[in-house]
Amino acid sequence: MITLEKITKIYRTEEVETSALNEVSFEIKRGEFVSIMGPSGCGKSTLLNIIGMLDKPDSGSYNILGKEVANIKEKERNEVRKQHIGFIFQNYNLIDELTVFENVELPLIYAKVPKADRKKRVEEIIKRIGIAHRIGHFPQQLSGGQQQRVAVARALVTNPDLILADEPTGNLDSSNGSEVMELLCELNDMGTTIVMVTHSAHDASYCNRIINLLDGKVLSQKRNSTERNKLKVEG
Amino acid sequence: MFKNYLKVALRTLNKNRSYAAINIIGLAMGLMVCIIVFLFISKETNYDKHITDHERIYRIGNESKKTGMKFPVSPAPLAEVFRAEMDEIETATRILPGRQEILLIADQKRVYVDKSVQVDSSFFEVFDYQFIHGDAQTATKKQNGIVINQMTSEKLFGNENPMDKIIRYDDRTDYVVTGVVDEPKGDAHFAFNYFLTDNEMNDNWAMNRFYTYFKLKEGVELADFLPIMTDRLLVKIEPVIEKYNKMTIEEYKASDETGRHYVIPLKDIHLHSHTNYEISQNRNIIYLYVFAAIAFLILLIAGINFMNLATARSAKRAKEVGVRKISGASKGMLITQFLTEAMMQSLLALFFAFVMVELFLPGFNNVMDTDLSLFNTGFKETALFALIVTLIYGLFSGSYPAFFLSKFKPATVLKGDMTKTKSGSFFRKSMVVLQFTASTVLIIGMSIIFSQISFMHKKDLGFSGEQVMMIPLQTDAVVENFKQHKDELLKHPNIKSISRSNSLPGGITSQTMFEVGNSDEQIPMWIIAVDFDFLKTLDLKLAEGRAFDNQMDNDSSNVFIVNETALEKYNIENPIGKRIKMATGNNRDATGKIVGVVKDFHTESFDYEIKPIVLALSSEQWMATIKIAPENAQQTVEYIETKWATMEPSHPMTYHFLNERFGAIFKDQENFGRMFLYLTILAIIIAAMGLYGLASFTAEQRTKEIGIRKVLGASVPQLMQMLTKDFVKLVLIANVFAYPISLLLARNWLSQFTYQIDMPIMPFILASVIAIVIAVLTVSYQAYSAAISDPIKALKYE
Questions:
Q1: Least CB-CB distance to B15: which of A49, A97, A154?
Q2: Starting from the edge strand earliest in sequence, which strands make up the sheet with A85-89, in order?
């Protein structure tokens, strides 16, 4: 589904040049749940931004769903994002002025989905992630776990092929964190490809594969052998 | 999607009420000024345009070739010549407005009515009044006919039909009512309450007293007509030129010392004609420009507030921009969203602006002596104008923040902390400089206007109008027996002096040709016919020679006093005892001598130079002036009124004080100054509101820095200084721009006054001080709040 080849990203200031990614190459297959790990500053978030087309690589090739997207224009990137990618962030990034329903509805509005259809889809997804009773609330009225669930619902509502999660449990306590990870696993079980950046070995244990980065390079890639993955492989 | 934009916009406004208030109230004030200025300009630029065929109607006057000085009057026979002998002209009329209130008597009612006019039979052909009774064709054909307006009709006849009834004019002449006209449909450069028919043949081409209007035939171009008209009129005035100018036509045409005709379109009179003889005071077009410029500046200042606060708040909206972008919003969609928000705030402001217009319009009318109303026949145009301005404002002020915010990269804003961003800070600083440049220019301008007004008030006028009552004499009997009445009145200890004249400062209207010494050169000078005590009553000072003396002179002495300007202008040396011959005027061809020179005194506002003036001795004049003592003035006035009732029992006494009447000349400037002051205060308030908002965001952005500095030992004054100095710097930079602009504009404005102040330095210093004080006071509150905050909370802020 995703192929990265020799992706390089350099940040330049007036005096300093920092190589955030240095010829990173790997592949992610449809239905995989991949975790990207590494110490702070190793390039995890930069890599996720490039995969999510929020940032452009300086060199290298990026192919998603058979299409080369490394150097396409902002308008086309926007279209690809809209159609195929959902985002989940550590700090939820919900719009404070919109209710739960309206936050989840937002990507459908931009996708020009008719109103009746939007309502049906939003209600379905909200029910599915278990926050239907909070549908009219504003983000400030929710707990961190509930806010992240809304963010997950927003990422899912367009039925994306790929979900990118940037430390989705970073701001949550362990109980809420586990709930969110369970939710991601459920999605993955239903066929959604997920790429997650995390510091947490516990969270990474839910994934099929772990890619370790160091100083902008892929240090190692390994298959995960947790119970869930074993079952999945066997199943 | 639009609904979503509106929803977010409303909730954002609700959440940030103080920010919304600064924007909406600031803009509402700006729009209010715009709407009022629009109403004012609409009214002023539409004078006489309600008159049918106004674009073909013109007024003819005379101007000096040498000085360009204009006189909007013309000889009596001119209108008839236009009608009878010029094919290019459809019709023409001459009018002679009266300048006093006159007693009208009808059905036992005795009422003083002002604004009278003598009109010829074609008046209502040129100016289409709506007739309630009678008709335009016949109303002015009858000798001694009078057409009255509805107000006069009600005053004299109540609800009765006044047609064919008699009105006794000034208790002397009877007129028959031949028509009643409705109020004109619009404003005009003249407004009359009654029209006396004047169809007398008058072939005096030497006297320019009448106002002549003509209507060109359709298709005739003024430019083609003017040379034809000039040639034909020269033939008519040839005998006058030969007699008084002692020139042939060719010499007259070639000479720079003579006059020529000029023509002004009817629609231009109100704003472009400012001669000594206007029928009513016209408006100086500079006021329209100044008010329009101030309205623009105020709107600009409010717009800058909007842009500055929106970009300063960008950190707060950054996350939303990022989320919307990753949810599929394109840049265009985001721009539309932020523009929608700007538009919504603008439309809300528009609503408040209309409410404020209703509240403040009476005040404006009072200050500017006008009668604007919002809900008049032009409301649709006003509303459309206000809407267009609002939409342009919304686009203008919303566009920068919209483009600025929509450029945010989601990868940065969703992860990073935008509060540290320096983005847009140079733009914001530039805008603050622009705001304070505009405000400082206004403060300097206002200060210079008031300096000039104060100068006009304090300047020695050369005469004293204090406690001088002006009382028109209404009947022949009182004129004839005035000496007797005067002696009787002077017995009162508080009546200091009494005199008579044909005119007074503020209303001198007669110009006559003179010969002085052995020269037979005709020189034009202004003439006031006065009695022996005129100099004493008005406290005029002699420069040389003597005053009129009833021991040495009498009415037939033909003695004259001239002013200093007359000597200077015409190089009259050793004037005392010189022969002076008055060539035209009431005492035609009177020859006498100069007995004194009076020091110059002002007879008009300071826009005009002092004119050469001749005081001619005459005891048969109709305007009495009585100087009373300041003590018990009210009782003295009452005493005079009681006495007057026995002197002129048919006419109740009417009076004005000369200083008040003369002061009316400055009223226009004073009104303008006051309005300028109010608008300047408004501009400063809006600018200060913006600065307040900006300071609060600056303080918020620097919360962490303030906390660290406090922990490290910074005192509150040190922190306040740190937070305010940047703003003070901006205000100082604004001064650098404001000074030359103000200097240029002030010089331009002062140039309209012949007597003007030297360019003062104080307004510039004062404006800088005011601007800095306002900036410091505005920012200090926010700086103080930030400086005294708990450092622990501040450090937790991020």
A1: A97
A2: A85-89, A162-166, A193-197, A33-37, A209-214, A217-223
d(CA A1, CA A51): 11
Tokens of B692: 């307040």
CA dist B467 → B15, B457, B474, B497, B499 (Å): 63, 16, 22, 11, 14
**What tens digit of pLDDT does each residue of A144-174 get?**
889 988 998 999 898 899 999 998 888 888 8
Q: What is the pLDDT of residue B587?
A: 47
DSSP A187-211: HHHTT-EEEEE-S-HHHHTTSSEEE
Contact B328 A75 (CB under 8 A): no
The closest alpha carbon to B182, from B100, B140, B127, B143, belongs to B127
Cβ burial of B699 (10 Å; 0-12, 13-18, 19+) is buried
- pLDDT tens per residue across span B588-646: 567 889 999 999 999 888 778 899 999 998 877 889 999 999 999 999 999 999 999 99
Backbone angles phi, psi at B113, to 5 degrees: -130, 135
**What is the C-alpha separation between A50 and B410, in angstroms, rounded?**
12
> How close is the nearest chain A Cα to the Cα of B313, in Å?
15
Compare CB distances from A78 to B1, B328, B414 and report the shortest one's residue: B328
Alpha-carbon separation of residue B124 from B43, B136, B211, B224 (angstroms)? 24, 5, 15, 26
> What is the ipTM metric for this complex?
0.76
What residues of B are in contact with residue A95 (Cβ under 8 Å)? Answer: 8, 319-320, 323-324
Query: Is A41 part of the contact surface with chain B (CB cutoff 8 Å)?
Result: no
CB spacing of A95 vs B323 below 8 angstroms = yes
Instruction: Tell me which amino acid residue B469 is.
Output: M
Residues belonging to chain B with any Cβ–Cβ distance to chain A shorter than 8 Å? 1, 4, 7-8, 11-12, 15, 319-320, 322-331, 333, 409-411, 414-415
Q: Is A217 helix (H, G, I), strand (E, B) or coil?
A: strand
Contact (Cβ atoms closer than 8 angstroms) between residue B256 and residue B129: no
Distance CA B733, CA B432 (A): 10
Q: Does A94 touch chain B (CB under 8 A)?
A: yes
Neighbouring CB atoms inside 10 A of B188's CB total 20
Name chain A contacts of B329, Cβ cutoff 8 Å: 110
Q: For residue A12, what is the enclosing H or E element?
A: strand A2-12
Flag if A107 and B7 touch (Cβ within 8 Å).
Answer: no
Q: What is the mean pLDDT of residues B544-555?
A: 85
Nearest CA in chain B to A55: B411
Across the interface, whether the CB atoms of B411 and A74 are under 8 A apart is answered no
Q: Using DSSP, state whether B105 is helix, strand or coil.
A: strand
CA B179/CA B246 separation, integer angstroms: 46
When CB atoms are compared, the residue of B12, B327, B411 closest to A55 is: B411
pTM comes to: 0.78
- Going by C-beta distance under 8 Å and a sequence separation of 6 or more, which residues neighbour residue A207? A33, A34, A35, A194, A196, A224, A229
